[in-house]
Fold this sequence. Notes:
Elements: H1 2-8, H2 12-24, E1 45-49, E2 52-55, H3 56-74, H4 80-85, H5 88-109, H6 115-124, H7 137-146, H8 151-172, H9 179-190, E3 192-201, H10 202-205, H11 213-222, E4 232-240, H12 242-246, H13 253-267, E5 272-280, H14 283-294, H15 299-305, H16 310-313, E6 314-319, H17 326-332, E7 344-346, E8 349-359, H18 366-398, H19 403-409, E9 415-420, H20 440-444, E10 456-458, E11 461-471, H21 482-510, H22 515-522, E12 527-532, H23 543-549, E13 557-561, E14 567-577, H24 586-615, E15 617-619, H25 621-628
Antiparallel strand pairs: 1-2, 1-15, 3-12, 3-14, 4-9, 4-11, 5-6, 5-8, 7-8, 10-11, 13-14
Amino acid sequence: MLRGLRNASSGWLGKTIMAVVMGVLIVSFGIWGIADIFRGFGQSTAAKVGSTEISLNEFRQIYTDRLQQIGRQFGRPLTQEQARAFGLDRQVLLQTIGEAALDEEVRRLGLNQSDAETLRTIYDDPNFKGGGGKFDAQRFQTIVRQLGYTEARYIADRRRVGLRRQITGTISAALEPPKTLIEAQSRFADEQRSIEYVRLTAAQAGTIDPPSPEALAAYFDEHKTLFRAPEYRKIAFVAITPEDLAKGAEVSDEDAKKLFEQRRNQLGTPEKRQVSQIVFPNVEEAQAARERIASGLSFDDLAKERNLKAADFDLGLVTKSAILDPAVADAAFALPSGEVSQPVKGSFGVALVKIGTIQPAIEPSYESVAPELKREIATERARNQATSLRDKMEDERGGGASVVEAAHKLGLTATTIDAVDRSGKLPNGEPANVPVGLNVVTQAFGSDVGVDNDAIPFKGGYVWFDVLGITPSRDRNLDEVKDQVEVRWREDQVAAKLRSKANDMVQKLTTGASLADEAASLGVKVETATNLKRETASPGVPAGAITAAFRTPKDGAGQTPGTGGGEWIVFRITDVVVPKVDFAAEDVKKLKETLQGNLTEEQVTQYVHQLEKNLGTTINEAAVAQVTGANNEQ
């Protein structure tokens, strides 16, 4: 599984997307070889695990949710083609099947999780805690919405995840990475090396005579592809965004004051209360505890009797909306400071609620929020205007108008770029005039002249573009790029001479010569770098030198390119230190946690894979292809 994920994420884009995938999936089980036999069945079923059927609509919702979550985190929509290219379609399918298999096992074992425990896991989730380390309901609601869930659906999913973890936690509870493995990994990561080195630059290469016309022509013929003119495209585009439309828009105080009155309660600082609650399984226990409090037992002492930590019962200084249970919220904001409620029948049990400090609500003045309200109104109006202009633009385009013609008719400004290459540069090497974040050039190179392209979503608005012309890539002749060729030829000559000098120096150092003497003969200074670590940058030391240093034995010498082709590094290893492993150190503890996580992942993967085989797993490939768009390629 881990090998597969590494292969999928080998490029920078793959690494980014796979990191986002692993961040948004609540539980991820990538399983190899999930079913030995794939057979089609009912159109409405995507897969079946044991007696559990994953309906086509259910898988479609899960798959769409995942792509939207990834798109939001990645910063732009992820197409079905991109998702399939990175194997996300199979990742989500296999995850869904693995979860279904665990759900079957949960039912077979008769496992359960109380409402109170589900709520506790949400309160304890660090992702939902604010700056003070307390549960932040607004943060919770925002994240849940970003994931594409309703609150009720998320809580239900957390319960299912909790039940699955009862199984996965049990089978991995005794796992611990071998001490030898931890020690080997730690020694490898913490090994330190010190070097002395010199930098050879163009000054040490000596005089480079200008090339003869014949030599330059021969070099050009050998490296012609380096100087080839790229394909250029002439494009025109027009952008309609609320941000641009809102600039300079006037909003009256009358309109802003209307919104102020509507938002008065939301714009101010709402009342906050220090709320504590203890949940009981039934009214009888809660009432008995309330009577003991009335007789003098403190709320904190009652919590201690029930083995509750402060984090288990103290909700902190919160607003009413921050309390998930409506019944508890109503009770908490009806009590005076210092009071303990009567038993409250809530969604997760029967609770006693205590109120501490009360922080009164603060209402803002209109003047303090007027600029923000006016910006909001202007942006909302611009959004509506953008939608209207989008419809008009689509009508014009549908009638056969080009982007430039449609823009002119609607009073919009179109941008035309006569020639731009795939990297977004003009023939003179300058960047094209394209708004930051707009990938219109990439889209244009995926289209053609005369194609009616779909609008590109951009900053809450839309961008339309046409490809007006294509200038194919071609070989340039020497006269066009003579200066560039001569510069490149000279750089290669310098690099070759530096490499030769570096090799000569290494041979001398290997036979006992002093680096200081060799440096003096070349007029360069000896530099030192100490306590270097693998894959750890050191100021002023080229990364290539660090990598090469860890391939060279103590007292050995080596050479490597420096920064660019005009620099070469010659070095000697002066010290190698392999520190003892301190198993109590924080970095070693973190390493152990990482290794334990990897072992757990592999163990769970094997368990779920075997579970699926025992239950019997089938996949309706045709139905899955319908959801993921794979059948569109056929």
